[in-house]
Amino acid sequence: MPRLEVRKTYKLYIGGKFPRSESGRSYEVSSAGRSPKFLANAAQGSRKDIRDAVVAARGAVKGWSGATAYNRGQVLYRVGEVLEGRRDQFIAEVAASEGLTKPQATKLVDAAIDRWVWYAGWPDKLAQVLGNLNPVAGPYFDISAPEPTGVVGVLAPQDSSLLGLVSVIAPAIVSGNTVVVVASEDRPLPAISLGEVLATSDVPAGVVNIVTGRTAELAPWLASHADVNALDLTGATELPWAELEASAAETLKRVVRPAGDGSGAEEPDWLVTPDLSRMHAFLETKTVWHPKGM
Amino acid sequence: MTPKFEYAPAPESRSVVDIASSYGLFIGGDFVDPTDGKSFKTVNPATEEKLADVSEASAADVDKAVRAARRAYDRTWSRMSGAERGKYLYRIARLLQERAREFAVLETLDNGKPIKESRDVDVPTAAAHFFYHAGWADKLEYAGLGPAPKSLGVVGQVIPWNFPLLMLAWKIAPALATGNTVVLKPAETTPLTALLFAEVCRQADLPPGVVNIVTGAGPTGQAIVDHPGVDKIAFTGSTDVGKAIARAVAGTRKRVTLELGGKAANIVFDDAAIDQAVEGIVNGIFFNQGHVCCAGSRLLVQESIADDVVHRLQRRLRTLRVGDPMDKNTDVGAINSAAQLARITELTDAGVAEGAQRWSPDVELPKRGYWFAPTVFTGVSQTHRIAREEIFGPVLSVLTFRTPDEAVAKANNTPYGLSAGIWSEKGSRILAIADKLRAGVVWANTFNRFDPTSPFGGYKESGYGREGGRQGLAAYLDTEGTH
Questions:
Q1: Residue-wise pLDDT tens digits, B26-57
Q2: Superfamily of chain region A26-30+39-291
Q3: Which of B56, B347, B366, B423 is the most buried (most CB within 10 A)?
Q4: Which region holds residue B458: left if phi is over 0, alpha if psi is between -120 and 50, else beta?
Q5: With a cut of 0.90, is the ipTM above it?
């Protein structure tokens, strides 16, 4: 008789732990493609789960943003190493989640690992690229440097379950922000596996929090939460994202709109090499003046 | 007088390193014998015990190394994406971290520096340097040097004996990150960590020829500088040799960066936190036995607090532990070589002859090996040799000043311009003085800080070019036509 596999329970990732939804709900996740197959019952997160995740994210801001840039770079590179070690697992999960062949999934997983490593090199370079001394017309030392904005709410891309996910999480956290991520609704399983990677890579608890569930149900709570500093609407491709942006305006959150033209929204091509824009979106610039004189 | 607590010896074990009896040259990914079979020995300066025989590379060997580097550049390294180059550098950074203890012990054995410095400064900073530059390899278009900076080709690098592994990292990490291949010569008295680094390149599966290590003395370095296949020279060492290199490449298209000597002023104002300043003065000149090009070798102290500062400095120096570099308690280790000891002795004798007052704490120096007690000269004038020439040893010259302008004038009264220190509790004064100092690095209320993100290098006869930071990348990139 063939050996029966041991299946994994996919739960949320909040504050470094893997709780079920406080609501006790779950929803069925199936593979993509012509003949969908049951994959798992994912936790169906609630408003309360989002709020718990924001509390965890806020609590992690001080330690993560206060770590040296070199230290953040080391930790993020460690994530890349552990991702590489789980490459086969992610290839299987991405293939099932996105309805891809193994070679297709392999290409995306490799790109996701490389994308993470690309971002891991940024923490100790951002200030050198985006900051500068200002030649003010007076006897002052005047310097501007980027600082993280705080807690970032992220609606993860709906289609690209790992490469897209990595491409929105990494740029937010490299500079010291912490994130609450609403995973792809129909393809949430690689996100929770990424949480397992983060939990075992020296990333402090609460820096990344991942909630699975119905995006339409969760997004408004994240958009309106007063303790969230920025909102990434990349995954709001099936939602009235203008309403979410308007909600975010109540606390003047920094907003990243979904890709596309006008009121439409589409998922970007994640294989394109990124630029600074996603990191820049979640940064404040601080300018310090100090007099000079004998 | 502050008593010196007696500590039980805490010797680091040398069993973590295996030193071979002899070493070849690392060319094209393999250790090879030198063409004419010549070798020289490297010794432990703390004991004069021979550590190993090391190959002496001739011009023919250098030629082989340059050809290997060129092949690697043409066939693999220049064609590889920045991201893939970066992955190799990350591997090297990790391997250095993994083998940190081994490198630290070997560095201390070959160099004579205290194990606590090689363990806590040299090796971790070297790893950090690779880590930082690994991240740049695929981000060069963001370095502010133009949209498409290009690698140069084969780089010849010659490094000194004071921070053997760290200087190797400062040279190799940016060169590789920017897409160049290298031929590097470590100093003849400290070749062993460079040869262990060759092992690291192998463990990282670095393509053969990307890094070549040729050991030897001055003539080997000269062969690198003179080789027509080398596109760029990077040198750290004395100002005399730096000038000779600048002369040698004159009229060629070789690019050069030079990190040379220094005679740094460490300026203490009357509003400084004095105990903190004393710690900084000690760190500034006695760190690494004063074998530091940016050492704070000229203490400029405001006249009104001079007696107090010197008194507290002497009290502090009585607590320094001088001796076995392998003892984790040791603050000051061995002088790197007999030749350097002779140079320090000559200059300190000149200090006495020219009328300065010499003082050293009462320390018992080991019988074997090369040793020099921490030394402070007071009553030094600007014309004394000990105030003008780089001693490169644990010798501090104390001068005084009355006004900030006088401090600046005295600090800048040197052909060198590598570093300077300012001690004051007044931020506006620090920044105003820093503006007036002709030095590439200015430390305020600290000294001898190094970080891969922070550009390091000199003004005037301390050389040109920077190492570290965004600016350091420029030393290894062709940015012409990209602006």
A1: 999 999 999 999 999 999 999 999 999 999 99
A2: Aldehyde Dehydrogenase; Chain A, domain 1 (3.40.605.10)
A3: B423
A4: beta
A5: yes
